[in-house]
Amino acid sequence: DTGVSQDPRHKITKRGQNVTFRCDPISEHNRLYWYRQTLGQGPEFLTYFQNEAQLEKSRLLSNRFSAERPKGSFSTLEIQRTEQGDSAMYLCASSYAPGGNEQFFGPGTRLTVL
Amino acid sequence: AQSVTQLDSQVPVFEEAPVELRCNYSSSVSVYLFWYVQYPNQGLQLLLKYLSGSTLVKGINGFEAEFNKSQTSFHLRKPSVHISDTAEYFCAVFRSNDYKLSFGAGTTVTVRA
């Protein structure tokens, strides 16, 4: 399977703990995006990378959130000191630029903060 | 400000009946338009996209959509739905001066026998 993969698929954690999610994009894609989706809503943009450079961050991305893409391939999203409001589905997507307007999505990581 | 509006949050429909899901957007620049489908506990799957050219776009699973620039709309249609079309559908806009997708809040389609 050469699609976008995410790990883990589900994560349950206690408030105050740190969590880290991983995304592996489609191999030739140079852009990688993170979105957050809460119940009953559409995905909301968090941040994106072109190769290893993080080019844009949403105001939704508080200072407890950090994302990296160290070698321009896989990416990690870390949430420190989780809060109940962080409970959501975290979606990763990738695309190829220039010219690639279609974003391919992974299956998502569902985070539940107790 | 909401820039992508899906006008119906829930659409119940009988099997083999037609369905239309409405999407309006606002933008001061040119746009690319997408419809995605999401099945429970899964990621998003692209149904169809409008980049340029013909305003009537055909996608997978018998879906089609029409881009109307004057109405700033991109409504999704299927002439005859199946039980397996039960899912959530998202309209999304990619602005030519931006890098990210902006999504609507979604429309839940429930197909009943």
Descriptive notes:
The complex is a heterodimer of chains A (114) and B (113). Chain A has no helices and 11 strands. The model of chain A has no long low-confidence stretch (mean pLDDT 93). Chain A is globular and about 40 Å long. By secondary structure, chain A is mainly β. With 113 residues, chain B is mainly beta. Helices cover 0% and strands 54% of the residues of chain B. In chain B, the strands form 3 sheets. In chain B, strands 2, 5, 6, 10, 11 and 12 form a 6-stranded mixed sheet that branches. In chain B, strands 3-9-8-7 form a 4-stranded antiparallel sheet, with no helix packed on it. In chain B, strands 1-4 form a two-stranded antiparallel ribbon. The radius of gyration of chain B is 13 Å and the shape is globular. Classes of the chains: A mainly beta (114), B mainly beta (113).
What's the short story on this structure?
The complex is a heterodimer of chains A (114) and B (113). Chain A has 114 residues and is mainly beta. Chain A has no helices and 11 strands.
Radius of gyration of chain B equals: 13 Å
Radius of gyration of chain A: 13 Å
Oligomer: heterodimer
CA-based shape of chain B: globular
Q: What is the CA–CA distance across the termini of chain A?
A: 33 Å
Question: In percent, how helical is the residue content of chain A?
Answer: under 10%
> How many beta strands in the DSSP annotation of chain B?
12
Largest interface: A-B, 25 and 23 residues
Compute the separation of the termini of chain B in Å.
38 Å
Task: Please trace the helix and strand order of chain B, writing H or E for each element.
Answer: EEEEEEEEEEEE
Instruction: Specify the number of helices of chain B.
Output: 0
Beta percentage of chain A is over 45%
Largest sheet of chain B: 6 strands, mixed
Mean pLDDT across all amino acids of chain A: 93
